[in-house]
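Many introductory courses stop at the sequence. We go one step further.
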Amino acid sequence: MKAFFERLYFAPRWYHYPFITLLLPLSFLYGAGMRLRRLRARKERFDVPIISVGNLIVGGSGKTPFVIALASEYEKVAIVSRGYGRQSRGLVEVSRKGEILCNVTQSGDEPMLMARALPHADVIVSEDRKEGIHKAIANGAEMIILDDGFNRVDIEKYDILLEPESITNYYTFPAGPFREFVSTRTYADLILKEGREYHRQVTVENPADRMVLVTAIAHPQRLNPYLPEGVVAKVYKDDHAYFDEEELKRLLQEHHADAILCTSKDRVKMEGFKLPVSEMKLKLEINKKSRDQIAQTIDQYRQGKRE
């Protein structure tokens, strides 16, 4: 069922369209509800610039590597995330100035990846994003990046909306992958398209001759163009799922493989595992024009506060 809906959302075939048609009334109601929520929202303004990085489509569009790339250019920056897939509740400080303060089950995979990639930043997870922002400011943050924040409509922020290279289904959930009507993109301050304003660069650390791909990301087929030679099997788990070391060892034996191949998001959930791992490292290159637009917005906000 999961595979059926992933294909329906991201690569629909002729046999998906009867199901899409049946789901359209629910899709319209869902989209209308989200639009009403956005129109009725009362936004809270904070004393530091808040940059939101988000998307309209469920699943990955490069938000985490984009946040890492953006945060690496600034000092006294904090990242506030929801922490999807974590086994904790409430506000949790993941890192403070690079010092890791919890484990990956408490933080979730993406916040831990960001914390380890950004030794100068703070990373906080909280269902209540406003609470997370207040905590970050109390800790001395002078700029906040809101991870997956486009649908946080009650916060005054600069919205960066990331879009994938291609979209084949423009309907809202459950008939399509959109969280809100596609026209909601007009609420964004800056729209960046993959392959145009930002590009992925993928390298493989510790490659092996025979590797089993094991990953727990949304729409894992998007990894296919970046897979190295030597992948002898692919194992897909639910987005944000955790891994069992013994299961991974069995996979290595079953496929006579030399290593487990995974993404960096998966790798943080294998820490301490005693088995060979090849890691797909993803880095985003953001074009200069887009980086300059974001920097100008931050400078204007800070100048306005000083005045």
